[in-house]
Write a structure and sequence with these properties.
Alpha-Beta Plaits, 80 residues, single chain, alpha+beta
Length: 80
Amino acid sequence: MPEAIIMINVEVGKENEIFERLFNLEEIKEIYMVYGVHDIVAIVETKDLDDLRKLITEKIRRMEGIKDTLTSIVVSYKRK
């Protein structure tokens, strides 16, 4: 199952609203509101790469209030 880390920038004042909408997407495994270059960081998981593409392009990037995203697809990881 493909995983990706998505760094998200939102319109000023929309952070809480976007955070809650993203939190409710079933593909979101973890989500963080952060300070710095990005406003929100989400870790997502889908059943295949096509679903990952659809999640990013059709659900997340089209969400009103999101200005831009930067996606890194996970190729290797370790869990404790």
